[in-house]
TrEMBL record:
Organism, scientific name: Halanaerobium saccharolyticum
UniProt xrefs under HAMAP family: PyrR
Gene: pyrR
Protein name: Bifunctional protein PyrR
Description of how the protein assembles with itself and partners: Homodimer and homohexamer; in equilibrium.
Listed SUPFAM superfamilies: PRTase-like (SSF53271)
Gene3D superfamilies hit by this protein: 3.40.50.2020
Domain Phosphoribosyltransferase: residue ranges: 11-163
EC numbers, comma separated: 2.4.2.9
Length: 184
């Protein structure tokens, strides 16, 4: 669905609640991994990137350790590439460190069918052999088509397939919010 044909039905999460969710996810990542050793964060372009950067900043605030953070572009790994665009725009993957032997936390804004995560896993494996890959997301809206689940979730939001969950970050969208959109 094209977001330009959608209207805001409801604001589900405001800026303060997003901040609390990010703090909680950062603590959960540290707890599960028993600290920061060999831990890296990789955001899936586009809105997984500011979430990964915020998680890294929160972890640095908590532990005093700056985690390596990267950006993963999955455009060429998508299984719906032919339906996305005639000439899809490919951005650069920016991971300036070796992921081999690392505990990678893959970060994205919304987990829906699982296909974006599948594409990201393929892209990561082409870059090296991580010790472990975990998934952190802001919103899990259900409707999985693949056997994929998140290790760290900001909020579970059951939705209908006709609705769209739009996660906004001030770095990209000029405000922090999670919106529920519906067809106008």
């Amino acid at each position: 669905m094209d977001k330009s044909e959608m209207i805001v039905k409801k604001e589900l999460i405001d800026s303060a609640a997003m901040g609390r969710a990010i703090t909680r996810i950062a603590h959960e990542i540290l707890e599960k991994n028993k600290g920061t050793e060999d831990l890296v964060l990789i955001g899936i372009r586009t809105r997984g990137v500011p979430l990964a950067e915020r998680l890294a900043a929160k972890i640095e605030e908590i532990e005093g350790v700056k985690l390596p953070t990267g950006i993963l572009d999955i455009t060429l790994y998508r299984d719906d590439l032919s339906t996305v665009a005639q000439q899809p725009i490919v951005h650069r993957t920016e991971i300036p460190f070796d992921i081999t032997g690392k505990k990678v936390v893959l970060v994205d804004d919304v987990l829906y069918t699982g296909r974006t995560v599948r594409a990201a896993l393929d892209a990561l494996i082409d870059l090296g052999r991580p010790l472990q890959i975990q998934l952190a997301i802001m919103i899990d809206r259900g409707h999985r088509e693949l056997p994929i689940r998140a290790d760290f979730v900001g909020k579970n939001l059951p939705t209908s397939k006709d609705e769209v969950v739009d996660v906004n970050f001030k770095e990209i969208d000029e405000k922090d919010a999670v919106l529920l959109l519906e067809k106008s």
